[in-house]
Amino acid sequence: MWKQFIEALTPDREFGPPALCAEVTLAEEKLGIKFPDDLRNLLFETNGVHGEYGLGLIWPLERIVADNTRFRANEHFKDLYIRCPMLGRLAASTPPRKRFR
After folding, report:
1. Is 0.90 topped by the overall pTM?
2. I need a surface site. Which of 1, 3, 5, 79 has the fewest CB within 10 A?
3. Which helix (H) or strand (E) covers residue 13, if one does?
4. Distance from first CA to last CA of the chain, Å, rounded?
5. Are 88 and 40 in contact, with CB atoms under 8 Å apart?
6. Would you list the DSSP string of 49-73?
7. What is the strand order of the sheet 13-15 is part of?
8. What does the alpha-carbon distance between residue 42 and residue 55 come to, in Å, rounded to a whole number?
């Protein structure tokens, strides 16, 4: 499902290999949260997506954990940072936008 959705958005993308359930569970344990189902399902299809020029369109688990850990530890970002459960609620309440041509 997610791969087809991303393929429809951009022809310039490279999918990573699927994440294993154990990898996703370990990442959740390291961050102390449960990822939203949509994120888990996306990671099970592709552990990250790179676009044109190697731009990280969707971060792989390794970067999700590393950047979240770093931002949470940084005094300047601590109060501004939105945790994944909040993002999950926002994503669930916001329907995907239609692509305009």
Report:
1. no
2. 79
3. strand 13-15
4. 22
5. no
6. EEEGGG-EEE--HHHHHHHHHHHHH
7. 13-15, 49-51, 56-58
8. 18
| Tokens 């290999």, residue located | 17
**Amino acid making up residue 90:** L
H-type alpha helices, the chain: 2-9, 21-31, 37-45, 61-73, 84-93
> Quick one: CA torsion of 96, 4, 33, 90, rounded to 10 degrees?
0
Cβ neighbours of residue 86 under 8 Å, at least 6 residues apart? none
Tens digit of each residue's pLDDT, the chain (101 residues): 888 887 777 888 888 899 999 999 999 999 888 999 999 999 999 998 888 887 787 899 999 999 888 888 888 776 665 555 545 444 444 444 444 44
What one-letter code names the amino acid at 58?
I
Q: Residue written as tokens 């294993």?
A: 20
